[in-house]
């Protein structure tokens, strides 16, 4: 799995940079997007092996992106992981109902984050 491409969609530059650094240090090829429009551009340019999607984004939210990707036959097979600080009861079920294949909470634990992403990738998102 060396060099697996991961797209991170998050509007917080600090979250993006931390996640990118941790994943790149573990051998991932990381691309980033600050909003849904940028995410669509990145998805069209390079099909990643996995997408980490923040739910709360400016303009169009992350779940709208998830639904759109799952509706696109060329992209539907990409595992989409909710990558969010939401931790309320029932949120994970809501994310999965929208099409998310998994859930990773923020803030990240830098010691285990890359391993968690690899686990999601190996399981096809779960």
From TrEMBL:
<dbReference type="InterPro" id="IPR050595">
    <property type="entry name" value="Bact_response_regulator"/>
</dbReference>
<dbReference type="Pfam" id="PF00072">
    <property type="entry name" value="Response_reg"/>
</dbReference>
<protein>
    <submittedName>
        <fullName>Response regulator</fullName>
    </submittedName>
</protein>
<feature type="domain" description="Response regulatory">
    <location>
        <begin position="5"/>
        <end position="121"/>
    </location>
</feature>
<dbReference type="InterPro" id="IPR001789">
    <property type="entry name" value="Sig_transdc_resp-reg_receiver"/>
</dbReference>
<dbReference type="InterPro" id="IPR011006">
    <property type="entry name" value="CheY-like_superfamily"/>
</dbReference>
<feature type="modified residue" description="4-aspartylphosphate">
    <location>
        <position position="54"/>
    </location>
</feature>
<keyword id="KW-0597">Phosphoprotein</keyword>
């Amino acid at each position: 799995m060396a060099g697996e491409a991961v797209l991170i969609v998050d509007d917080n530059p600090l979250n993006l940079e931390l996640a990118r650094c941790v994943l790149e240090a573990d051998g991932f090829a990381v691309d980033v997007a600050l909003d849904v429009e940028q995410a669509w551009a990145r998805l069209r340019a390079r099909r990643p092996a996995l997408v980490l999607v923040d739910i709360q984004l400016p303009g169009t939210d992350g779940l709208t992106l998830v639904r759109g990707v799952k509706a696109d036959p060329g992209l539907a097979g990409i595992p989409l992981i909710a990558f969010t600080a939401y931790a309320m009861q029932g949120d994970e079920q809501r994310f999965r109902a929208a099409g998310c294949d998994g859930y990773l909470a923020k803030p990240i634990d830098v010691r285990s984050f890359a391993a968690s992403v690899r686990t999601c990738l190996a399981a096809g998102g779960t």
